[in-house]
Amino acid sequence: MGIIVGCNSDGSTPQSRRAVQAFLLGEPVSAQRQFTAIAQKPDQNYVLNNLRLGASALAAHDFEEAEAALVRAYEVLNATRVNDPGRRAAAVLFDEKIKIWRGEPYERAVANLYLGLIYYEQGDYQNARGAFENALFKLRDYGSEQQIKSGDYTTVESDFAIALLLLGRCWEKLGRPDNAQAQWAQLDQMRPDARELLQRTRDPLTNVMVVVDFGFGPRKTTEFDGSIVKFYPSPGEVGQIPRPVVRVNGSEHYSTTPLFDTVVMAQDRKWQSIDTIRVFKSGLGTALIAGGAITTGYGLNRDDGNTALIGLGLMAAGLLAKASSQADLRQWEMVPRTTFVIPLRVEPGPFELDIDFPDSPGLRQRWTGYVAPSPGEADLLVYVRAMRFMAGEYAVRKPTDVAPIFPAE
Q1: Measured between alpha carbons, how far is 169 from 160 in angstroms, rounded to an integer?
Q2: pLDDT tens column, 293-307
Q3: Comparison of pLDDT for 256 and 374, the residue scoring more
Q4: What is the structure's pLDDT at 277?
Q5: Residue 190 CB burial class (10 angstroms; 0-12, 13-18, ≥19)
Q6: What is the DSSP-derived secondary structure letter of residue 242?
Q7: Which band of pLDDT confidence, cut at 50, 70 and 90, is reported for residue 171?
Q8: What does DSSP assign to residue 217?
Q9: What residues contact 39, with CB distance under 8 A and at least 6 apart?
Q10: Is 278 within 8 Å of 295 (Cβ atoms)?
């Protein structure tokens, strides 16, 4: 998938575009530094910029900064009055970008997943549990075009399988195997193709959890009259997700199953933010323009200036409604296409980790300096952002304390 950076039509700024570009070019430390300067600004992009900062810091292994940024975004996303009535009214009349960005449902699920991973890395399984549970929020399934137009939807359970897997592991670590089994039974029913992954996650001797972000999510554009969001590329245009191969001290471990694909999710209406107000405004604008054109023509044919003026007024109102119905193209560019979870049994002590994608050359990373804990202790979580421009060798600064990464000498 090509690298595409947003332009002015998506509400971005020169500063945010430069920072996003740094991330996409494999420079998360630079991206983090640039987003730190703008993420505190309390504007309509506050949530989005903090998620961008959180993803950049996570890729740079600065978990403290990542946690702070993601928590700031989380607090606003879960506030009851994020888009207050005045801001909502202005958005209805003028431009959606006046609203606080809340993202698509799949973007919010990934945000909660990231926060859970950070707590898991800290051994804070209680907070990790809460974050993974929040990633499993209920979804709105509109089903048909008629339901979208009427604003009618069905509430359905989330199928964000990765959160179920990790939630079960948290419950196991918290000494609640009954709750763990409930989550894993649900996952087993939902994704029978992931049974080997589930078995390895349930293994009491598993002591290292490797988490690998791969690729990028879809991009937003519009179709029809600009009021309908379209996501590209389609799953058929990008092909299947390549599988990673993991080696510990040179010994090869299994390749794992991807538990989600944001390219696929974006095509699923229940994972989209369907804005019925925007659709209504577009339809209203079309009707006003058509009605105004008919009224204007009627007035001109009858030499009735007042009727013609009324028609022109209707057309102007229709054009305003159409202009204000344009879709919000802001998006979280760092969202991965998928996140692999690779549970491992590793002999306690220092180890080297190689992560490679044989079917997608140029992504290999080698990590040194990690120390595997004894089984029964807190898991070691190893986070890796697999990107073409981040291939290479890295070392953890201290064997027992994951700090910002730097190239291995």
Answers
A1: 15
A2: 788 777 778 777 788
A3: 374
A4: 42
A5: middle
A6: P
A7: very high
A8: -
A9: 46, 49, 50, 52, 53, 69, 72
A10: no
Gap between the Cα atoms of 289 and 279, Å rounded: 15
What are 5's two structure tokens? 């950076």
Q: Report the pLDDT averaged over residues 249-278.
A: 81
pLDDT tens for 56-78 read 999 999 999 999 999 999 998 87
Three-class DSSP category at 399:
coil
Distance CA 314, CA 298 (A): 13
C-alpha to C-alpha distance for 364 and 355, rounded to whole angstroms: 6
Radius of gyration of the chain (CA): 24
Lateral strand order in the sheet of 392-395 = 251-252, 245-248, 349-356, 365-372, 392-395, 406-407
pLDDT at 377: 92
Give the closest residue to 35 by CA, choosing from 218, 97, 44, 47: 47
Tell me the torsion sign for CA atoms 42, 47, 48, 49: positive
Average pLDDT, the chain: 82
User: What per-residue confidence (pLDDT) applies to 340?
Assistant: 97
- E strands, 159-300, in order: 208-214, 219-223, 228-232, 245-248, 251-252
φ and ψ of 251, to 5 deg = -90, 125
Taking CA atoms, 118 is separated from 55, 126, 358, in Å, by 11, 12, 28
Higher pLDDT, 328 or 81: 328
pLDDT value of residue 269: 83
Nearest-angstrom CA–CA distance, 172 and 200: 13
* β partners of residue 355: 246, 365
Scan for tokens 């119905």, then name that residue. Answer: 325
What is the 3 state secondary structure string of 6-57?
Answer: CCHHHCCCHHHHHHHHHHHCCCHHHHHHHHHHHCCCCCCCHHHHHHHHHHHH
DSSP string, 68-101: HHHHHHHHHHT-TTSS-HHHHHHHHHT-GGGSPP
